[in-house]
Design brief:
By secondary structure, the chain is mostly beta strands. Helix content is 13%, strand content 44%. The strands form two sheets. A six-stranded antiparallel beta barrel has the order 1-2-5-4-3-6. Strands 7-8-11-10-9-12 form a six-stranded antiparallel β-barrel. Strand 9 and strand 10 form a beta hairpin. The longest helix is centred in the last third of the chain and has 14 residues.
Length: 199
Amino acid sequence: MFTGIIQSKGSIKEIFSSSDGARLKINTNALDLSDTNVGDSIAVDGVCLTVTELTESSFTADVSNETLTCTTFSALKQGKNVNLERSLRVNQGIDGHLVSGHVDGIGAVNSIEKDGDSVRIKIEVQGDIIKYIAKKGSICINGVSLTVNSVENNFFDVNIVPHTLSATTLGDLSLQSNVNIEIDQIARYVERLLSQNEE
């Protein structure tokens, strides 16, 4: 479980591809790994990965073919910057919202516009993901907890303040950039409860 508050920007150091998926070695930069152990979870661009190897400044994780198919990881390249967040600790506050690290789909950046000191980004999603996205609700984009401004057809938009632009990789986005989308978990449970009541 995560909060969507990015703790560091890392970068892809190495990618080892195989028929079973891929193995990623990730430089963590400012992320403190002093109390991280093999087997712990770290969210990478919103994808929950399990640490398999550790150094003082990097970790390695395996990625399945399923994850490569359902996320932006199929297009990862060496040197790419990624958002990093260690899993939620029991005594840790929740400044964002509860995030599972299980990506629901991929979105594409449709427009980027200045909005005062912030940047407004409109994102297009495919399939039925949009029905889970609500105005003023929470959304997770590349691991970053954000508030939805508006929803229309298959599009939603968010405002990104200067701190978030500099502290995450969202400031690197351009038109048609693909992003990992995780909907608010509450929406999943509400749909499940409603479907049970209809049976």
